[in-house]
């Protein structure tokens, strides 16, 4: 990009461009003055300065009417674009029309959240912003923060026990936990406590990264330890493992709801104080005024609210 000759700009008053736009739109000094809420003498003075700046009459009298010169007509659209750019920069906000938006939006969702939120999100995007493409990445929580900081993604949804000052979080949902097991292989009382759960080997999913620390921390706080004999990177495999092995899985209720079709398994809610998984929507402070990021964030919130109202609670 070429360097700007700042000294040359000292003789240009941006207010003159505002006056130029009003004069060309109204083709009348008096109406242009009224449009800008200034006196007619001040507008006449601005017209004189514009004539000197552009070396052109800008407006001329043709019989009883005023007309814009060919040069003024040619300059009208470029000047209008300049004023729009200045307005956006100075105002810090840009007019955003989702229906006309183009580009790609990159977000991070783990597998369960993608299954829960993506149907509603994609439907909303296709309806309101068909020119936007969606790219979803499945990343552990800590890697989501790194990707957000690096600008590789614009939004992240998940469990974030620690965020930095540059991150802005919106609470979406707090998931409880339930235990899942095959009642033909595991004898478990209704509404089991941690002691009953600790009697059986466990399978755990690592999809939320630090969520294992939430569950294990609760056991430790009660002087108990669970034995995790299998760890799955794919939470959707857990029901199939439970059907064949005498294991127990302690799962967020978001997952349990997805597994409801597995009628041969049993799911028991866990009423243990402190055992919950908050889900948040994260953006980066640099994108605070980005209308596209704000738009997609709003769609994610709507999608989560839709899922909750359909029976998540």
Automatic annotation (TrEMBL):
Residues 12-69 form the HTH lysR-type domain. It comes from the Bacteria. Transmembrane segments: none annotated. This is LysR family transcriptional regulator. Gene3D superfamilies: Periplasmic binding protein-like II, Winged helix-like DNA-binding domain superfamily/Winged helix DNA-binding domain. Belongs to the LysR transcriptional regulatory family. PANTHER family: HTH-TYPE TRANSCRIPTIONAL REGULATOR LEUO-RELATED, TRANSCRIPTIONAL REGULATORY PROTEIN. The lineage of its organism: Bacteria, Pseudomonadati, Pseudomonadota, Betaproteobacteria, Rhodocyclales. Keywords: DNA-binding, Transcription, Transcription regulation. GO terms for molecular function: DNA binding; DNA-binding transcription factor activity. The keyword Ribonucleoprotein does not apply.
């Amino acid at each position: 990009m070429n360097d700007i000759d700042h000294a040359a700009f000292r003789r240009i008053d941006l207010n003159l461009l505002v006056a130029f736009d009003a004069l060309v739109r109204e083709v009348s000094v008096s109406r242009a003055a009224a449009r800008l809420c200034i006196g007619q003498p001040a507008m006449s003075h601005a017209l004189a300065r514009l004539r000197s700046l552009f070396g052109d009459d800008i407006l001329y009298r043709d019989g009883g009417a005023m007309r814009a010169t060919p040069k003024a007509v040619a300059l009208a659209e470029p000047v209008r674009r300049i004023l729009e750019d200045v307005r956006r920069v100075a105002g810090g906000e840009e007019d955003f029309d989702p229906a006309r938006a183009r580009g790609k939006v990159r977000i991070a969702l783990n597998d369960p959240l993608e299954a829960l939120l993506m149907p509603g999100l994609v439907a909303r995007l296709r309806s309101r912003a068909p020119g936007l493409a969606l790219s979803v990445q499945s990343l552990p929580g800590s890697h989501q923060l790194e990707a957000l900081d690096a600008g590789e993604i614009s939004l992240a949804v998940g469990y974030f026990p620690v965020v930095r000052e540059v991150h802005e979080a919106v609470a979406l949902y707090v998931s409880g936990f339930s235990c899942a097991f095959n009642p033909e292989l595991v004898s478990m009382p209704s509404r089991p406590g941690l002691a009953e759960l600790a009697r059986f080997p466990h399978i755990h999913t690592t999809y939320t990264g630090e969520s294992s620390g939430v569950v294990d921390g609760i056991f430790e706080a009660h002087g108990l330890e669970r034995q995790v004999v299998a760890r799955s990177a794919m939470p959707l495999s857990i029901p199939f493992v439970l059907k064949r092995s005498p294991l127990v899985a302690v799962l967020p209720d978001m997952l349990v709801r997805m597994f409801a079709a597995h009628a041969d398994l049993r799911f028991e809610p866990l009423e243990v104080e402190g055992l919950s998984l908050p889900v948040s929507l994260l953006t980066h402070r640099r994108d605070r005024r980005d209308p596209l990021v704000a738009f997609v964030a709003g769609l994610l919130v709507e999608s989560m609210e839709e899922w909750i109202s359909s029976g998540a609670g």
